[in-house]
Amino acid sequence: MTPADAPGTGSTETARSTEPSQHGTTVSELDSPESIAAEVSAGIEAFLELKAAEFLAISPDADDIGRALLEFTRGGKMIRPVLLWWGFQLASGDDSSRSALNGGVAEAAGSLELLHAAALIHDDVIDHSDTRRGKPALHRQFESRHSERRFQGGAEPFGVAAAIVIGDICLALSEELFEKSQSVLGITPSARDLRATLRRDVMVGQYLDVLAEVVPLDDARIGERAWEVLSFKSAKYSVEQPLLLGAALGGADEEQLAEISRFGLPLGQAFQLRDDVLGIFGDPAATGKPAGDDIREGKRTVLIAESMKNLNSEQTQIMAERLGDPDLSDSEVAECVSMLTESGGLDAVESFIRSKHDEALSVVREWATDSSPVSSTRTRIGPTAQRQLTKFAEALSYRKS
Amino acid sequence: MTPADAPGTGSTETARSTEPSQHGTTVSELDSPESIAAEVSAGIEAFLELKAAEFLAISPDADDIGRALLEFTRGGKMIRPVLLWWGFQLASGDDSSRSALNGGVAEAAGSLELLHAAALIHDDVIDHSDTRRGKPALHRQFESRHSERRFQGGAEPFGVAAAIVIGDICLALSEELFEKSQSVLGITPSARDLRATLRRDVMVGQYLDVLAEVVPLDDARIGERAWEVLSFKSAKYSVEQPLLLGAALGGADEEQLAEISRFGLPLGQAFQLRDDVLGIFGDPAATGKPAGDDIREGKRTVLIAESMKNLNSEQTQIMAERLGDPDLSDSEVAECVSMLTESGGLDAVESFIRSKHDEALSVVREWATDSSPVSSTRTRIGPTAQRQLTKFAEALSYRKS
């Protein structure tokens, strides 16, 4: 079902938000990530086509905005939409009337993907990144367009200006799509608060990340700060909060939201710790990023903070000089990389990943009525749903790209 | 009343949005711009203090975000909040129960001011502006902070990165404050659409402005494009849409919204045309901007487009070379300025301002029951309200700064 076909669209608010959640019912099977991604993508595409037509009606010059966003939003991994969808399913149970609400859930999920696109567009400007999802970063695309069309003035500032504004437009569209979902799903105060927290925390996390990269490496808060960035810029925003928002939209109460946090937060932390490892040790062919990319970029990850603990003063100095220097040679990067291994930093992070991942899975086991028939949890799942959650969690914690 | 005291806060949705508007009642007096500005400012300040505490709870490093926004939002002209407030009053009439809703109206109005702050923060990055409201632009403030705190890496890119992210956070807070207003005021589909259109149009207008500055001066669409930028980046966003949003929140129907547009759009156009004139002919002591600033910045205003019509080929070439060159000497700027006068461009724009302004005021006269006792308009005002609207409109169209 496309969002436009969803029943109830156009009404101001439905009573949906005040219905009790389906406590006690067991979720036997979750919708597959592939089917969710397909439905959410189709919804985003239809919405952006509509918006592109509106932009074009404002001015022929505005046509590039819609085109650029349509292209940019294709090919995302759709992690957040899948998690929002599953959060909704976990809270609303195997309710047969649920599918009538799928159009609204797809819109809420699509809204997260647009928020993510906006964050990436601005991120790439901030990090001076050249590529994204295998294509030139948005600011680079507009920089090229400047040259192709023989515009005046500097091509690079034009690219940056266009990307800042188009990122802002994408943020606005994310709000608009979320608001559309409300005509189907309604909105509770807790869902509204979660949405506000989600969109704000990721930006505060981004600020902390920007700050972390300019603070001297021997700053006392390096470890704490790395965990703050990891949690707010990524773990909460990418995993915990999409699940929570979906659950709140599905009618979860405070108790169920707390259960879902106990699964989502450690899994999100494992997800981002893996990202940090891949940013340095990942296979460039798989990740699409050059080896040791995070060293040249100067990211202050938990991996770096853990490694610093065991470096001698000479090594510390070398690391401080090199981290964030975009012109490092491959052998200089390789020396830094081997310090991360030899210091025990990598082992420490792998051990964090294991323990965070296991913590998340232990919650999934509690939810599985099979293994715990007298489960007192609000969230109840059958063996198929348990396998699906376990498989997805493993893909987040132990992925290669 | 502060927003936190407003009745109904915390409820999901109120029935307010479905009450009929107060057609036929006459609005005798509007709240004064000063009292509205004071109430909205206090609301923004209280809200940002709350948010600053939340940021601080995330990390001590995040404290600068809240502080910067608190400082940045002080000293705005509050044009949009006043217009939203008045739109609400015009639609809801002299209803004595209205004052109970003022907390919600102040939040909705404050939300527009935060959206405007976000737009200015990003604007200043895009335009490489050094100052804003008599203080260093936000990116310059963070650039200085980088040096003061002996951070590593480039100070300028840090300032830009911080301003992009803090602008994004300010956008998010604007949404949050608007959502708060809904617990008091409720929301109709028309108000929701107006909010979506408002926040999007200003950004599309900003994109068109960025594009206009790089398109060659002899482009066939220069005149059309200047009017598009003027209307979408400013006239609608600064005047028409705040009035409409306030009116929709106050219960206006389509017919009343159309009446308000007939006043708001031409007034908004007069407001921005005046801005264009002041950007070149304004007294630097009054505007706080250097004389001829818009010439060095390369703004492609209606004033420029009108002047180009009557320049000879030699003059056209000089203008094309100089417009947007930040290093022009004062005498080079002065030559351009005199071309704008001699070409008749300035006269044409002054005549547009007069006719747009008069068009807006003729609508106000229709609303005044005094002069037209059998008025068929939805909007009805008494002599005091008429004087207030006239005075405010004159301040927008004929201001000196």
From TrEMBL, chains A, B:
One of its GO terms (biological process) is isoprenoid biosynthetic process. One of its GO terms (molecular function) is metal ion binding. SUPFAM superfamilies: Terpenoid synthases. Its EC number is 2.5.1.1, 2.5.1.10, 2.5.1.29. Keywords: Magnesium, Metal-binding, Transferase. The keyword Transferase applies. Residues 1-32 are annotated as: Disordered. Its cofactor is Mg(2+). Residues 9-29 have a biased composition (Polar residues). Belongs to the FPP/GGPP synthase family. This is Geranylgeranyl diphosphate synthase, type I.
